Amino acid sequence: MQSNFKPDLSTQCAAIGCTARIPRFHLMCLRHWDMVSCTVRAEVYATARAGRVYGSRVNYLLAVTAAQMNVATEEGKPADVRQALQEKYDRLLKLKSEGAKQEKAATA
After folding, report:
1. pTM of this structure
2. H or E element in which residue 21 lies
């Protein structure tokens, strides 16, 4: 018996320059996901699951950007692409730090 199930390929791989269509709840196509370190994969999974908790959106974006940086390095993307990803990561870290300071001040 054949299944008529077709995955919902409604989003695009998050790897820079990849146009592969992937299922909605995936971050990257398998080829690029295999380039992401186990540590970063675990962080993507952990922060995606915690998506409804305040502040976790920034944590998820940090993990996604780290995954993109892994792939860009593995693929030998130009320095300007890797630099742009690093700058994005640094901005997100700053945003996370500022949020933590505001939260600490609010509870003090």
Report:
1. 0.82
2. strand 21-22
